[in-house]
Amino acid sequence: MIAVLTFLHILVSVLLVAVVLMQKSKGDGLSGAFGGGGALTASFGSRGAATLLSKATSVLAVLFMILSFLLAIL
């Protein structure tokens, strides 16, 4: 049980870092550093990507906290 929760915790952590890095900052963000800024805007629209990424960040952050509490209790 602990091994499964630890695996999920690591997976959620990596996904959370990736989603946070994909978000647009005051500059061009990580996507602009590698030349992929236009592809994200073209597929989601200018506001759709921000909304999708912010919702994904919220969901992953809640999952991270829940898994952290479960692992601390066990």
Architecture overview:
With 74 residues, this protein is mainly α. It has a domain at 36-74. Helices cover 84% and strands 0% of the residues.
Question: Concise description?
Answer:
This protein has about 70 residues and is an all-alpha fold. It is built from four helices and no strands.
As a whole number of angstroms, the C-alpha radius of gyration is 15 Å
Poorly predicted regions: none
Structural class: mainly alpha
What characterizes the major β-sheet?
none
Structural shape: elongated
Rounded to the nearest angstrom, the distance between the terminal CA atoms is 9 Å
Chain-averaged pLDDT: 82
Strand coverage percent: under 5%
Strand tally, please? 0
Count the DSSP helices. 4
Give me the strand/helix succession: HHHH
Q: What proportion of the residues is helical, as a percent range?
A: over 70%
